[in-house]
Amino acid sequence: MERQTLAPSSSSSSSSSPPTEDAWVNTYQRLLPQLQSLTLPHKSIIPISISRVNQVDAARLDIEMSAMLKEQLVKVFSLMKPGLLFQYEPELDAFLEFLIWRFSIWVDKPTPGNALMNLRYRDERAIEARGKVRTGLEGPGLTVAQKIWYCVATVGGQYIWSRLQSFSAFRRWGDSEQRSLARRAWFFIQRIEGFYKAASLSNLLIFLYTGRYRSLIERALQARLVYASPNMNRAVSFEYMNRQLVWNEFSEMLLLLLPLLNSSSIKNFLRPFSKDKSSSSAGDEALCPICQANPTIPFLALPCQHRYCYYCLQTRCSASPSFRCSRCSEPVIAMQRHGG
Predict the structure, then answer these.
(1) What 3-state class would DSSP assign to 335?
(2) Secondary structure class of 1 (helix, strand, coil)
(3) Among 58, 131, 224, 277, which residue's CB has the most CB atoms within a 10 Å radius?
(4) Per-residue model confidence as pLDDT tens digits over 182-223
(5) Which residues form the RING-type domain (predicted)?
(6) In angstroms, what CA-CA distances link 154 with 85, 158, 196, 223?
(7) How far apart are the C-alpha atoms of 221 and 125, rounded to whole Å?
């Protein structure tokens, strides 16, 4: 009986067919929603930190770009009345800031500094609402309202504040009577400025800790700087900076050494190598070799008999007892008034 019962079971196991090839795929697709419901609530957001150096450098580059544009614009009005452009300097700064905003942020493009540092603005509110897993690369740009408020704060706010400060300083509100309205307005302006500086300092400390929102305007609008391209590295060429540093050091060295050099001895040393022989003409003989002007009180250097101004010759002889004539390099042992 046992053999009879085991025979059908062995025959049924041998006759059963293997599962189809798409059985695993169908099973995975059927269980995928359940797996996602179990894993997503426990999945934490992966923060991607934006380099603080990039953000600070971008702000500095934007300032330098505004300064370059302002310098070029000032050259256009260089032939006008002196001091005319100084009266409208706040308007000029606001105009340049508006141009940069119009052709960068308003058209969803990064500012020149942000473009060089591979950064762009992102609406952080949309990212928080979506609840994405990755932060720092994806996300939409600023909305129209954010762009307009950014222009109002950066362009209009800075212009109004600079004009208010210059107007209050010109009207001397701080020197008014103790209980006058102008003095109260002056103290109110000073307190607002102090509060703004304290808030900016707090925002800077928070920015250094978190790496988000480098200014109060960005924090108020929730406009965060993120990377524009994930595959672009921060590569800044320091070749121009090196050349600038070398030239600055060289110019400072010249400013230090030139006052210590004797100009007359250098001229006498370089005179044989000069191609212009007009200095030995009769017209130049009548001029003072130091100031290159007609001597008002002419004096002669003895024993070479060359004419000098009294002040030029006296100061050189007093400064250096071994003074040599600038024309013939002979030692000057005395001086005599011309015609005396």
Answers:
(1) strand
(2) coil
(3) 224
(4) 788 888 888 998 999 999 999 999 999 988 899 999 999 999
(5) 288-329
(6) 22, 6, 14, 13
(7) 9
